[in-house]
Amino acid sequence: MSYILGISAFYHDSAACLLKNGKIIAAAQEERFTRKKHDPSFPKKAIEFCLKEAGIGIEEISLIVFYEKPFLKFDRIINSIQANTPFGFSFFRKSIKSWTKTKLWIPAIIKKELAFTGNVLFSEHHEAHAAGAFFSSPFSESAIVTIDGVGEKACTTIGLGNNNEVKIIKEQHYPHSFGLLYSAFTQYCGFKINSGEYKLMGLAPYGKPIYKELILKHFVTITDQAEIHLDLKYFSFDKGKTTINKAFCDVLGQLARKPSEEMTSFYCDVASSIQSVTEDFLVKLLRYTKKITKSDNVCLSGGVALNCKANGELLTKDIFKNIWVQPAAGDGGGAMGAAFVGWYHYLKNERTYIDNTLPEQAYLGIGYSNDAIEAVLKEHQIDYSLVNDKELCEEVSDQLKGKKIIGWFQGKMEFGPRALGNRSILASPLYSDMKKHVNMRIKKREGFRPFAPIVLEEKAKDWFLDSISSKYMLFTFRSDKKEKIPSCIHEDGTARVQTLSSEENPLLHQLISSFEDKTSCPVLINTSFNVRGEPIVASPLDALRCFFQTEMDILVLGNYIIYKERNRNVSETLSKQIKYELD
To answer: DSSP letter at 375?
Structure first.
């Protein structure tokens, strides 16, 4: 029996993933347990969960693999500081403490934190991304493209996966990073970098790409080989203070938006412009990748691969016959990739999950039985009803039809950034004001933010044009049904769709089918079960707190239904408002 633990930590989105004989047993981000969004700390709680899920102790772990090579990364940082002397000194003073205290001593930290006596190995950052994408894909052979801010040195890489091996065949190094370019515009439009990039993507459809040529003239040049060259005089990320500088703002003609300021049409146009540049870059990169790899398949990973609007555009170009995007494409998913590197690259095991047979991707986190849920409800003196699956779906679909908002907590928690139906807030898409209602009164976030539809897979093509199976909300598709489902079709006529089969999530499929029986609509709004700044809920207690601190109407925990109106006098433990750092 061979257990391999993959770990990502100390930058953002720390996570752990456990393999048993090459099969994914469990995976989770640390933020779900600590309740600190994008928590970068050592993922001790996530590791404890993985071990408990497998029913083993740390002594049974054969190998631990960390998702990047710290000394290579430190070398790049020191070289960057030297190149920017004396401007990089403040960055050096700020970062040297964390590096000398923790980041350079990963094996010692792992052994101490976990009382582990075995081998600790390292993957390169983009190797972990590429491995996580390829070895979780249905392909036995594939091109692999990874795009992010920066790993050790690489920012964009092209690789090849074949059976049990991933090779990087071309890479572009820091500071010429498309991920950092996109983050620069994220900051400029008033959002938090390494967190708010998806907001920039959601803002883009409200504007027009009128600054696209200006961006290509001043900020970035993209070659025919899809290499990018940033004009560094407009950026400050290599000096460590901020991503952009005054020269950047001068080109665009306005100061960077402050997070508290009103969102104007100018910033919408800027967002639209960089999104258009992104889509063009990805098309060019994939065409070049196709040219040099000759593969029919491509796997995408890295933070930029979470840009579902760009992924949707790639589908329309028919560059590759098949596209796979790793569901946890960001740094959290690096833990999965690191574990796969241990199993395939270090131990040289043959590939097992190929030929269109996918390992479980979504529901890899912690789960709770009905008995465990009931114990929490009784502890907090909650009024509830216990019903069977059929009664549950009938009652909840009636309430959805009646415009009620449902907190939906079922089974195992999702791994990755998306709520895929087990830790979700559900609502009817039939009402034009539902988007505003959920954004403002439930999620407590910006009103422009779109909501994703979840649709029965067998009905998807009737509602979303040219849609394909999209289990993980990683592609957008156009829809001509905005009049019927106005609250989940975005300004540009697209939607970030999740298709759902009865095999993947039988209970949710049954609920949507029941809703369709009542409304002739096989679609629901599906958004993550949290408020702005809060990680997605992990436990029944997290769900109860979120439920009683928002204007959700009904909470479903397993087979238990809780009505807000019947629980007006709950304890301060549940009702006291928790303040989260806004993303």
So the answer is: H
What letters, b where the CB count within 10 A reaches 16 and e where it falls short, cover 238-260? Answer: bbbeebbbeebeeebeeebbeee
User: In the structure encoding, which two tokens stand for residue 109, read together?
Assistant: 């930290």
- HSE (CB half, 13 Å, CA atoms) of 357? 6
- pLDDT per residue as tens digits for the range 445-459: 888 888 999 999 999
Instruction: List Cα–Cα distances, 350 to 81, 140, 221, 403, in angstroms.
Output: 43, 11, 41, 51
Beta strands in 88-190 (DSSP E): 119-122, 141-147, 154-162, 165-173
The answer to whether 80 and 174 are in contact (CB under 8 A) is yes
Altogether, the residues listed in the chain come to a count of 583
DSSP 169: E
**Average pLDDT score, the chain:** 93
Q: Is the pLDDT of residue 50 over 60?
A: yes
Question: For 528-551, what is each residue's pLDDT tens digit?
Answer: 999 999 999 999 999 999 999 999
Tell whether pTM > 0.85: yes
Residue position matching structure tokens 């979303």: 464
| DSSP letters spanning 176-234 | --HHHHHHHHHHHTT--TTTSHHHHHHHGGGS--TTHHHHHHHTEEE-TT--EEE-GGG
- CB burial of 90-104 (b: ≥16 within 10 Å; e: otherwise) equals ebbeebeeebeebbe
pLDDT at residue 99, rounded to an integer: 63
